[in-house]
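The passage that follows is intended for readers who have already worked through the single-chain material. We present the inputs for a multi-component assembly, then the predicted structure in tokenized form, and finally a short commentary. You are encouraged to pause after the input and sketch how you expect the pieces to fit together before reading on.
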Amino acid sequence: MANQEIFFGEPSPQANELRRQKKMLAVFTAFLAPYIFLYGVYRVTHGATLSGVIEIVLGSLLVMNYLAFLLHRRIAIAKPAVTIASIIVNVMVLGTGGINGTAAYWSIPFPALTFLFQGPRLGALYNAVFFVTMVGYAILVKIGVVGSYYTYDQLKQLWSVLILTNALGYAAENGWHKARQTLERQRGQLNTLLSNLPVGAVMVKKDGTLSASNESAARLFGQPILPTVKVNDVPKTYGFKKEDGTPYPVEELPLIMSLKTGKAAPQTKLFISRPDGSTVVLRVTASPVLDTDGKAIAAVAVYEDMTKEHEIDQIKSEFVSLTSHQLKTPLTAVKWAMETLLDGGAGALTPEQKEIVTETGATVERLRRLVADLLNVSRIETGRKFNLEKKPTDIATMIRSVAAESSATAGQRRVTLDVSKIPDGLLRDVDEHKIREVFTNLVGNAIKYSAEGGRVEIGVARAGKKAGAIYVKDGGIGIPAEQQDKIFQKFFRASNVEAKKEGTGLGLYLAKAIVEKHGGSIWFESQEGKGTTFYVALPPAAPAS
Ligand code: ADP
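Having made your guess, compare it with the prediction:
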């Protein structure tokens, strides 16, 4: 990929340099050409024909040099031409004394100007030549080989002034030159880095104008990114969509959010309908660019192509959805058959037969629950059939019923279930069936991950921020601190869970999805080896009207 300039609205270093050189050349020519030309005229009219003509020619050549530069932008010819001319003039003027012996003083600005014009290196070279000429001339005057318009003392004074202006010119130009070189080098590195990144990058200034973008961004968007587009028009111009195909709301754009909050925006998925008809799925993150006061002056968004990943995810979800659907019906049939057998519907069973059928029935039930969980996961992921049927529901009654249902399992493990801290008439606006699944899972986990003879308490938090949240508390194995952030992930099971404890790692993933779909929240506090408390906050039921 070419190392192209990616910053909008800012001239490239090369363009900047050319502009500067042009300006300096104009200043130098405007200063030098008339000076040399008029001097030449003066000399010719005062009898010094040869040196006068040389100067007239030189002055005219300088003007032509500048015009040639304007036409061809050949700075390589223009720069040395002016330098050589100024050396010739300086030496000539010095040697001949100029008008009334003041020529040496006219030379004073040249060294400093040469630095500005030529940069520190060529400037130094020019000055070296000039100085050698000057010193040589002074020595010749001193030993009386040549006569001069100046006394030796005058020449010494002149040197002092020249050395001073030289030093100032050099210091200013060198400092500036170095700072500019550093900036340009850094900018060049940044440029190369951004242009060659496989991810798209777009930078927006506080005022909403685009300030930079790289090639990958244009490739992902399927069209060039124009600096004239305002950030508010970006979703429309580039066909940004949400997963359901609706236009991407401007205020949810990570770039905008990041500019507004001064913080990194949460990762989001973005769909783009490109001009060629294809669609890409991008993962977008945005971070602010802060000034020294910590205020956001710009924001950078990074776009990563996740089209393949998205497709695979979809295929996976479809597959899970399909297989769990297919498994559900036969499993239900097996369950019914077992129940009929147990009820003696196919003749009385011997105690041994009954035991075998009961055990098989329990296994089938576990299988059926797993299939139901998988089906729920696929519903959440495809967004299908996951509608809530909310109504004011008495949570206390629900939890007591869940506890009663779990009492057999709790009894086997000699775990006490305490629901006495749940007040009556605890109404919440929920889908009863789905929220029941959440508590069945939390209470089931609390029993499963408790030690034999442990105690599980279900109640309602009273104080502080947690007030109103329903908790399920156990004194069991707890969750290792370093794995706590993963606990709600699909299929995640903590490392301290014994292999023989059955589980899929889907329960909490589903619980979180269900609770959040209700607009509620679920969280926990846990200490490994001490116990875990899960909290569920649900929206209150609207007062009956
Ligand atoms: P499962 O229990 O089927 O493994 P869940 O999604 O319900 O799956 O839970 C995920 C993981 O969270 C569990 O495997 C376990 O490591 C941890 N966990 C959940 N509840 C508790 C609890 N009450 N005490 C300790 N660990 C728990």
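Commentary: The pocket of adenosine-5'-diphosphate is lined by residues 441, 445-446, 449, 474, 476-479, 487, 492-494, 497, 503-509, 532 (CB under 6 Å). The mean pLDDT is 85. How closely did your sketch match?
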